[in-house]
Structures are given as structure tokens and as C-alpha cells.
Amino acid sequence: MLPLRRILSKQASSNISRSFHSCQTCYAAKIIDGKAVAEQVTQEVKEDVSEWVAKGNRQPHLSVILVGDDPASKTYVRNKTKTAEKVGITSETIRRPSNITQEQLLKEVQELNQNPGVDGILVQLPVPQHINERLICDAVSPQKDVDGFHMINIGRLCLDIPTMIPATPYGVMELIRRYGINLFGKNAVVCGRSKNVGGPIAMMLQSDGEHSSKMGKDATTTVCHRYTPPVELANYTRTADIIITAVGCPKLIKANMIKEGAVLIDVGITRTINPATNKFRLVGDVDFEEVSKKASYITPVPGGVGPMTVAMLMKNTLIAARKDISYT
């Protein structure tokens, strides 16, 4: 018999799915509530952590290295450690000055790699310019790489082998799954080709999903990027059943660039000033007000993909603690 929370989770997913399919013919966009789904995921992780500890295991532990004083990075790290505490994962934030040398940072990472009491490691990005970001990401042990940025984890993702999936792409796929959005044979357009977000999302969208990771969506996937001419970008997006954008360009995707009933998932986030109030606000890559009149489903910014990133990071930390993935 399924535990009650699993039944409730399945019922919630079923209700979301029915809502999506009934909406496909009305084209008044429904909101993909990332905050609500993230709360579901964190509750599930919390219960799984409790079950894990009840079996005599120690609490999973997450170590975060924060280099420098970037305000946004401080906020992100605070959100991560706060959520970790909420689900029963212990955590620590290792703060280092921006003038730390690359060698010193590598030493910090290696010490965490060798510490058996540490299950998950992440180095908050970006790091200062004098530090090679790729070198640091690849220094983290793949088994403890809860960000999913190590070349081995990205390579395994490309081969559809069980791996640590980068938290933001993982969150996007989880939203698609829980809202019952069927992409089999559909046209998907990804705007953005970053190695940590756009690339992994495109890989999972086009994958067949019949192998070990079970994350593939069997979509016909096109990747656009900064050098895609605007006219060509619009040509691609107008044929898309789903558009996932992660470029950090406010209102890049406008209503005349999508077809009716398309699904819009907005990963982009930019801090701008509201001219009406002269206050800062966060905006996405999608012209939300106009596109939402034409799309079937859309994520808001904030409150869409953002909360899912932290939730999936917690799930990855539990996966690392339980050693659910074999690297041998």
C-alpha cells in the first residue's frame, strides 16, 4: 500500500494534469505554480529524510562554499540552508573572501570531498574572475556534486545514465511532469545554451526517456542562443508547443512570437527598476502580461522555476546521502 503522502502527491499531480489538458482548448494561460510544487517536493524530501534517519542513518549534510560578498549569492545561499534545515538536512556555509586564491579554494573542496560526514558539496556561482569556474566545478567529487555541474554528471546526463541532474533543469522537468504536460513528438524550443541550464534542459527534452534516467520527453528540440537572429528566433518559437527560455533578457518572448496554446517556462530572471514606483523588481524573459493571454500554461517570475531549484537541490542532497546513484 502506498504511504498517504505518496497517494496525496499522485492525486495532486493528477489534478494538475487534468487542469492542463482541459485548458488546452481555452488558451487563457494557467499559472504553473512553482512555489506550490516546490512545497510538495520539500515535504516529500522531509519525510524521506525522516525515514532515512529512523533507519539508523545520520542526517544528510550539505556544505556550501560562498566566495566574496555578492548580495545575490548571499541570498541564494541563505535560501538553500534555510530549506535544508526545514527538511532535516544539516548544512554549513563556508565563507571565504573574494581574494582567495584558486589553489586555496581547490584545497577547500578537496577537504570536503575527503570528509565522510559531508554528503553534498556546492560552490556558489559565480566565483571571482581570477578563479576558473570549470576547474572548481570539476574538483567536486561527482558523488557529492549536488549542483550536477561536474563533467562526469553532465556526460552521464547526455548518455541518459542515472546521474546528479543540475537543480534548475531538474526543477523544470519536475514541473512538466507534475503538470502532466505531454511532450511526446511535440516541438520544443530552448532559448539559451548554457552548460548548467539550457544545455541540460535541451538534452532531457529530446531524450527518449526509455533508459535509466527516465527523464526524457521525446520532444523535437531546437536550441536558440544569443547569435540566433531575432527573425529566426521568432520563426522557431512560433512553431513550438513549449518554449523554455533561460537567457536573462527581459521580455524577449512576446505574444506575436508564440502560437496559441503554447506552454511557456521562464527560467530567466533580471533585476530591473519599476518606473512607476522607482523600486526594484524581478522580471523574466517572457512578456508575461501579453503572452499569458495566448499561452495555455506559463510560469511567473518570481514564483515559477526559482523555488524549484532549491527544492531539487534538497532532493539531490538526499540522493547523495543514500548513495542512490552508482558511479562504479
**String of helices and strands:** HEHEHEHEHHHEHEHEEEEHEH
The number of distinct β-strands equals 11
Which structural class fits the helix and strand makeup? alpha/beta
Low-confidence spans: 1-25
The radius of gyration computed from the alpha-carbon positions, rounded to a whole number of angstroms, is: 20 Å
**What is the number of helices?**
11
How many strands, what sense, and barrel or not for the largest sheet?
A: 6 strands, parallel
| Shape call | globular
Strands across the major sheet, in which order?
1-11-8-7-5-6
Strand content: 15-25%
The residue-averaged pLDDT reads 91
N- to C-terminal separation? Answer: 33 Å
Helix content: 40-55%
Keywords:
alpha/beta, six-stranded parallel β-sheet, single chain, 11 helices, disordered N terminus, 328 residues, three-stranded parallel β-sheet
Structure, explained:
- The structure is a single chain.
- The chain is an alpha/beta fold and 328 residues long.
- Strand 5 (187-191), helix 8 and strand 6 form a beta-alpha-beta unit.
- It contains eleven helices and eleven strands.
- It has a six-stranded parallel sheet, sandwiched between helices. Strands 3-2-4 form a three-stranded parallel sheet, sandwiched between helices. Strands 9-10 form a two-stranded antiparallel sheet.
- The model is unreliable at 1-25 (pLDDT under 50).
Structural topology:
Layout: H1 4-23, E1 30-31, H2 34-54, E2 61-67, H3 71-87, E3 90-96, H4 102-114, E4 120-123, H5 133-139, H6 151-158, H7 167-178, E5 187-191, H8 198-206, E6 220-224, H9 230-237, E7 242-245, E8 263-266, E9 270-274, E10 279-283, H10 288-291, E11 297-298, H11 305-322
Parallel strand pairs: 1-11, 2-3, 2-4, 5-6, 5-7, 7-8, 8-11
Antiparallel strand pairs: 9-10
